[in-house]
Design goal:
The protein is of the alpha/beta class. Helix content is about 30%, strand content about 20%. It has helices at about 20-30, 50-60, 120-125, 140-155, 185-200, and strands at about 1-10, 35-40, 65-70, 75-80, 80-85, 110-115, 130-135, 160-170. It is found in: Cytoplasm.
Length: about 210
Amino acid sequence: MTRVLLTGFEPFDGERVNPSWQAVWRLAAAPPDGCDITAVQLPCAFGSSLDALRAAVERADPEVVVCVGQAGGRAGLTVERVAVNVNDAAIPDNAGRQPIDAPVVGWGPVGYFATLPVKACVAAARAAGVPASVSQTAGTYVCNHVFYGLMHLIATERPALRGGFVHIPYAPEQVLDRALPSMSVTLAVEGLRAVVAAAVSRREDIAAVGGATH
């Protein structure tokens, strides 16, 4: 059994739900074969989210970590390629903080690549019938903050750990009055199931188109 830590976020920006936590919680209840999954909800707040992530890693001692967040406006599941060392919040977090042009880690490098097989994870989600693509940006809000913090923890303290970040769209209930794309939590769960299975089963990525022109 491979020990896997999955994280999702609490609701933020006035939303009543966060599909990232809904999907993570459901997947943990029915994990892929060969996976022992621990699911943890993180606060949508700079600083405390990383404290909660570190505590979860220490408790679960995972071999693979997949953090999951909500990306309102995106039409499919997106596997993030790179985390950047900047907090630049367009809106306050749930603690009322709104850092502008501040580093995640003051002495950390500019960025980190995910250590999951990003393109293989995308291919696995698509094979499961879930719209998916590689993303070149995790934003500069709490999702990127957590992604960068995870990869910095791996780089500096847990080199045997592998990790990455996945964004999923709004749930349908969040866009009833808005002309925005959405994905059912059930479909998101199946996409995440495929991503986790691919992340656990292989270390080397596949050669496939995953870039972007802008």
